Amino acid sequence: MTKIYAIANQKGGVGKTTTCVNLAASLVATKKRVLLVDLDPQGNATMGSGVDKSELEETIYDVLTNRADIADCLVVSEEGKYHVLPANGDLTAAEVEMLSMPNKERLLGQVLQQIADSYDYILIDCPPSLNMLTLNALAACDGVIITMQCEYYALEGLSALIGTINQIHDLLNPKLRIEGILRTMYDPRNSLTNDVSAQLHEHFADRVYRTCIPRNVRLAEAPSYGQPVLVYDRQSKGALAYLALAGEIIRRNELGASSTPMNSEVA
Ligand code: ADP
Ligand code: MG
Fold first, then answer.
1. pTM of the model
2. Could you tell me which residue ranges the AAA domain spans (predicted)?
3. Nearest CA to ligand 1 atom 1
4. Distance 32 CA to ligand 2 centre (A)
5. Residue nearest ligand 1's atom 24 by CA
6. What's the rounded Cα separation, in Å, for the pair 64 and 61?
7. 16 near 126, Cβ under 8 Å?
8. How do residues 60-101 score in pLDDT, each as one tens digit?
9. What atom of ligand 1 comes closest to residue 20's alpha carbon?
Protein backbone atom coordinates (compact mmCIF):
# COMPACT_ATOMS: atom_id res chain seq x y z
CA MET A 1 0.00 0.00 0.00
CA THR A 2 1.35 3.37 -1.01
CA LYS A 3 1.81 5.83 1.84
CA ILE A 4 1.47 9.51 1.01
CA TYR A 5 2.93 11.91 3.58
CA ALA A 6 2.82 15.70 3.55
CA ILE A 7 5.82 17.32 5.24
CA ALA A 8 4.27 20.47 6.62
CA ASN A 9 4.64 23.45 8.93
CA GLN A 10 3.65 26.92 7.84
CA LYS A 11 6.85 28.24 9.38
CA GLY A 12 9.79 28.55 7.05
CA GLY A 13 13.22 27.23 7.90
CA VAL A 14 12.12 24.33 10.09
CA GLY A 15 13.62 21.56 7.97
CA LYS A 16 10.69 20.52 5.74
CA THR A 17 12.66 20.47 2.50
CA THR A 18 15.77 18.97 4.11
CA THR A 19 13.57 16.21 5.52
CA CYS A 20 11.81 15.53 2.21
CA VAL A 21 15.03 15.18 0.23
CA ASN A 22 16.93 13.15 2.80
CA LEU A 23 14.04 10.96 3.87
CA ALA A 24 13.36 10.20 0.19
CA ALA A 25 16.99 9.14 -0.37
CA SER A 26 17.03 7.14 2.88
CA LEU A 27 13.83 5.27 1.98
CA VAL A 28 15.40 4.44 -1.39
CA ALA A 29 18.46 3.09 0.46
CA THR A 30 16.11 0.59 2.11
CA LYS A 31 14.82 -0.45 -1.33
CA LYS A 32 11.56 1.50 -1.28
CA ARG A 33 10.18 3.16 -4.40
CA VAL A 34 9.83 6.86 -3.67
CA LEU A 35 8.33 9.93 -5.33
CA LEU A 36 9.12 13.40 -3.98
CA VAL A 37 6.46 16.00 -4.85
CA ASP A 38 7.79 19.56 -4.72
CA LEU A 39 4.83 21.73 -3.79
CA ASP A 40 6.80 24.88 -3.00
CA PRO A 41 7.29 27.52 -5.74
CA GLN A 42 10.78 28.07 -4.34
CA GLY A 43 11.70 24.70 -5.86
CA ASN A 44 14.26 23.95 -3.15
CA ALA A 45 13.48 20.24 -3.02
CA THR A 46 13.82 20.10 -6.81
CA MET A 47 17.24 21.78 -6.74
CA GLY A 48 18.32 19.78 -3.69
CA SER A 49 17.58 16.62 -5.67
CA GLY A 50 20.00 17.71 -8.41
CA VAL A 51 17.27 18.82 -10.84
CA ASP A 52 17.74 22.29 -12.36
CA LYS A 53 14.41 24.07 -11.88
CA SER A 54 15.19 26.69 -14.53
CA GLU A 55 15.58 24.08 -17.29
CA LEU A 56 12.25 22.32 -16.82
CA GLU A 57 9.73 22.41 -19.64
CA GLU A 58 6.90 21.04 -17.56
CA THR A 59 6.43 21.12 -13.82
CA ILE A 60 3.81 20.40 -11.18
CA TYR A 61 2.21 23.69 -12.22
CA ASP A 62 1.29 22.21 -15.62
CA VAL A 63 -0.05 19.07 -13.94
CA LEU A 64 -2.25 20.93 -11.44
CA THR A 65 -3.69 23.20 -14.13
CA ASN A 66 -4.40 20.36 -16.59
CA ARG A 67 -1.75 21.41 -19.09
CA ALA A 68 0.27 18.19 -18.83
CA ASP A 69 0.07 14.58 -17.71
CA ILE A 70 1.80 13.77 -14.48
CA ALA A 71 3.67 10.87 -16.09
CA ASP A 72 5.29 13.29 -18.57
CA CYS A 73 6.54 15.60 -15.82
CA LEU A 74 8.31 13.13 -13.56
CA VAL A 75 12.09 13.31 -13.50
CA VAL A 76 14.61 10.98 -11.88
CA SER A 77 16.96 12.36 -9.25
CA GLU A 78 20.21 10.78 -10.42
CA GLU A 79 21.76 11.58 -7.05
CA GLY A 80 18.95 10.35 -4.82
CA LYS A 81 17.58 7.55 -7.03
CA TYR A 82 14.00 8.63 -6.43
CA HIS A 83 11.49 10.29 -8.73
CA VAL A 84 10.65 13.98 -8.49
CA LEU A 85 7.56 15.90 -9.51
CA PRO A 86 9.45 19.19 -9.80
CA ALA A 87 8.44 22.78 -9.12
CA ASN A 88 9.64 26.25 -9.90
CA GLY A 89 8.26 29.79 -9.66
CA ASP A 90 5.43 28.95 -12.09
CA LEU A 91 3.68 27.25 -9.20
CA THR A 92 2.84 30.64 -7.69
CA ALA A 93 0.41 31.15 -10.58
CA ALA A 94 -1.16 27.74 -10.02
CA GLU A 95 -2.15 28.74 -6.53
CA VAL A 96 -4.24 31.58 -7.96
CA GLU A 97 -5.60 29.61 -10.95
CA MET A 98 -6.66 26.73 -8.72
CA LEU A 99 -8.99 28.98 -6.76
CA SER A 100 -11.42 29.13 -9.67
CA MET A 101 -11.19 25.46 -10.62
CA PRO A 102 -13.82 22.89 -9.62
CA ASN A 103 -12.73 20.57 -6.79
CA LYS A 104 -9.92 22.98 -6.08
CA GLU A 105 -8.72 21.22 -2.92
CA ARG A 106 -8.60 17.80 -4.56
CA LEU A 107 -6.52 18.55 -7.66
CA LEU A 108 -3.26 17.16 -6.31
CA GLY A 109 -4.93 14.07 -4.85
CA GLN A 110 -6.56 13.28 -8.19
CA VAL A 111 -3.30 13.43 -10.14
CA LEU A 112 -1.32 11.49 -7.53
CA GLN A 113 -3.85 8.67 -7.65
CA GLN A 114 -2.92 8.13 -11.30
CA ILE A 115 0.64 7.09 -10.42
CA ALA A 116 0.47 6.14 -6.72
CA ASP A 117 0.65 2.39 -7.38
CA SER A 118 4.17 2.78 -8.75
CA TYR A 119 5.54 3.89 -5.37
CA ASP A 120 5.82 2.73 -1.78
CA TYR A 121 6.16 6.28 -0.44
CA ILE A 122 5.14 9.66 -1.81
CA LEU A 123 6.53 12.64 0.13
CA ILE A 124 5.06 16.10 -0.45
CA ASP A 125 7.24 19.11 0.39
CA CYS A 126 4.75 21.83 1.44
CA PRO A 127 5.28 25.58 1.12
CA PRO A 128 5.67 27.65 4.29
CA SER A 129 2.04 28.73 4.48
CA LEU A 130 -1.45 27.32 4.94
CA ASN A 131 -2.48 28.19 1.38
CA MET A 132 -4.40 26.32 -1.33
CA LEU A 133 -1.30 24.27 -2.18
CA THR A 134 -0.95 23.07 1.40
CA LEU A 135 -4.69 22.33 1.58
CA ASN A 136 -4.27 20.16 -1.53
CA ALA A 137 -1.40 18.29 0.13
CA LEU A 138 -3.50 17.69 3.27
CA ALA A 139 -6.44 16.51 1.19
CA ALA A 140 -4.20 14.13 -0.81
CA CYS A 141 -2.17 12.48 1.93
CA ASP A 142 -2.55 9.70 4.49
CA GLY A 143 -0.62 11.57 7.14
CA VAL A 144 1.25 14.74 7.99
CA ILE A 145 4.81 14.80 9.22
CA ILE A 146 5.26 18.07 11.11
CA THR A 147 8.86 19.22 11.33
CA MET A 148 9.71 21.39 14.34
CA GLN A 149 12.71 23.23 15.59
CA CYS A 150 12.68 23.01 19.39
CA GLU A 151 13.02 26.72 20.07
CA TYR A 152 11.07 29.39 21.91
CA TYR A 153 8.35 30.06 19.33
CA ALA A 154 8.15 26.48 18.11
CA LEU A 155 4.68 25.76 19.47
CA GLU A 156 3.28 29.06 18.27
CA GLY A 157 1.42 28.45 15.04
CA LEU A 158 1.07 24.77 15.75
CA SER A 159 -2.54 25.16 16.84
CA ALA A 160 -3.38 26.85 13.51
CA LEU A 161 -1.79 23.95 11.66
CA ILE A 162 -3.62 21.37 13.75
CA GLY A 163 -6.90 23.29 13.34
CA THR A 164 -6.42 23.14 9.57
CA ILE A 165 -5.59 19.44 9.70
CA ASN A 166 -8.76 18.82 11.73
CA GLN A 167 -10.88 20.77 9.25
CA ILE A 168 -9.50 18.90 6.25
CA HIS A 169 -10.00 15.65 8.13
CA ASP A 170 -13.67 16.48 8.77
CA LEU A 171 -14.50 17.98 5.38
CA LEU A 172 -12.32 16.31 2.77
CA ASN A 173 -10.06 13.54 3.95
CA PRO A 174 -11.30 11.24 6.74
CA LYS A 175 -8.10 9.17 6.69
CA LEU A 176 -5.90 12.18 7.44
CA ARG A 177 -3.87 11.92 10.63
CA ILE A 178 -0.79 13.36 12.21
CA GLU A 179 1.75 10.77 11.17
CA GLY A 180 4.56 12.13 13.29
CA ILE A 181 6.30 15.09 14.86
CA LEU A 182 9.95 15.37 13.84
CA ARG A 183 12.40 17.41 15.87
CA THR A 184 14.96 18.99 13.53
CA MET A 185 18.19 20.95 14.09
CA TYR A 186 18.16 19.31 17.49
CA ASP A 187 20.65 20.37 20.14
CA PRO A 188 20.20 18.49 23.42
CA ARG A 189 22.70 20.80 25.21
CA ASN A 190 20.14 23.60 24.97
CA SER A 191 17.77 23.48 27.95
CA LEU A 192 15.00 25.13 25.93
CA THR A 193 15.22 22.24 23.48
CA ASN A 194 14.49 19.85 26.32
CA ASP A 195 11.55 21.95 27.55
CA VAL A 196 9.95 22.09 24.11
CA SER A 197 10.62 18.39 23.62
CA ALA A 198 8.83 17.63 26.89
CA GLN A 199 5.82 19.71 25.81
CA LEU A 200 5.69 17.90 22.48
CA HIS A 201 5.66 14.54 24.25
CA GLU A 202 2.91 15.77 26.53
CA HIS A 203 0.67 16.78 23.61
CA PHE A 204 1.55 14.20 21.00
CA ALA A 205 2.81 11.23 23.04
CA ASP A 206 4.05 8.44 20.80
CA ARG A 207 3.48 10.51 17.66
CA VAL A 208 6.81 12.26 18.39
CA TYR A 209 9.47 10.35 16.48
CA ARG A 210 12.18 8.89 18.68
CA THR A 211 14.66 9.89 16.01
CA CYS A 212 15.81 13.52 16.28
CA ILE A 213 17.66 15.20 13.44
CA PRO A 214 20.75 16.91 14.90
CA ARG A 215 22.04 20.24 13.73
CA ASN A 216 24.67 19.11 11.23
CA VAL A 217 26.58 21.32 8.81
CA ARG A 218 26.75 18.53 6.19
CA LEU A 219 22.94 18.67 5.93
CA ALA A 220 23.14 22.38 5.18
CA GLU A 221 25.98 21.96 2.65
CA ALA A 222 24.56 19.06 0.63
CA PRO A 223 21.82 21.03 -1.25
CA SER A 224 24.35 23.30 -2.92
CA TYR A 225 25.73 20.16 -4.61
CA GLY A 226 22.22 19.00 -5.52
CA GLN A 227 22.78 15.92 -3.39
CA PRO A 228 21.05 14.23 -0.48
CA VAL A 229 23.43 14.02 2.47
CA LEU A 230 23.57 10.26 2.01
CA VAL A 231 25.49 10.89 -1.23
CA TYR A 232 27.39 13.98 -0.07
CA ASP A 233 28.70 12.49 3.19
CA ARG A 234 27.17 9.15 4.10
CA GLN A 235 29.06 8.90 7.40
CA SER A 236 27.79 12.25 8.68
CA LYS A 237 25.50 12.50 11.69
CA GLY A 238 22.81 13.97 9.45
CA ALA A 239 22.93 11.01 7.05
CA LEU A 240 22.73 8.50 9.91
CA ALA A 241 19.82 10.37 11.49
CA TYR A 242 17.72 10.36 8.31
CA LEU A 243 18.47 6.66 7.79
CA ALA A 244 17.25 6.05 11.33
CA LEU A 245 14.12 8.08 10.63
CA ALA A 246 13.38 6.03 7.51
CA GLY A 247 13.72 2.87 9.61
CA GLU A 248 11.40 4.24 12.27
CA ILE A 249 8.76 5.23 9.70
CA ILE A 250 8.87 1.83 8.03
CA ARG A 251 8.61 0.05 11.39
CA ARG A 252 5.65 2.21 12.43
CA ASN A 253 3.91 1.31 9.20
CA GLU A 254 4.54 -2.36 9.65
CA LEU A 255 3.22 -2.24 13.19
CA GLY A 256 0.19 -0.23 12.02
CA ALA A 257 0.65 2.20 14.90
CA SER A 258 -2.49 3.50 16.56
CA SER A 259 -3.90 6.75 15.27
CA THR A 260 -3.68 10.07 17.04
CA PRO A 261 -6.87 11.68 18.24
CA MET A 262 -7.54 14.51 15.83
CA ASN A 263 -8.45 16.98 18.55
CA SER A 264 -5.00 17.30 20.16
CA GLU A 265 -4.94 20.76 21.62
CA VAL A 266 -1.75 22.70 21.62
CA ALA A 267 -0.86 25.88 23.47
P1 ADP B 1 11.99 24.63 5.28
O2 ADP B 1 11.81 23.77 4.08
O3 ADP B 1 11.10 24.23 6.43
O4 ADP B 1 11.89 26.08 4.98
P5 ADP B 1 14.78 23.85 5.11
O6 ADP B 1 14.80 22.36 5.08
O7 ADP B 1 14.96 24.57 3.81
O8 ADP B 1 13.48 24.38 5.85
O9 ADP B 1 15.90 24.31 6.15
C10 ADP B 1 16.19 25.68 6.38
C11 ADP B 1 17.70 25.87 6.41
O12 ADP B 1 18.28 25.14 7.48
C13 ADP B 1 18.39 25.39 5.14
O14 ADP B 1 19.45 26.24 4.84
C15 ADP B 1 18.90 24.00 5.53
O16 ADP B 1 20.04 23.64 4.80
C17 ADP B 1 19.21 24.18 7.00
N18 ADP B 1 19.00 22.94 7.78
C19 ADP B 1 17.88 22.17 7.80
N20 ADP B 1 18.02 21.15 8.65
C21 ADP B 1 19.26 21.27 9.19
C22 ADP B 1 20.01 20.51 10.17
N23 ADP B 1 19.49 19.43 10.76
N24 ADP B 1 21.26 20.94 10.48
C25 ADP B 1 21.77 22.05 9.90
N26 ADP B 1 21.14 22.78 8.99
C27 ADP B 1 19.89 22.42 8.64
MG1 MG C 1 11.20 24.33 2.12
1. 0.95
2. 3-178
3. 13
4. 23
5. 215
6. 5
7. yes
8. 999 999 999 999 999 999 999 999 999 999 999 998 999 999
9. 6
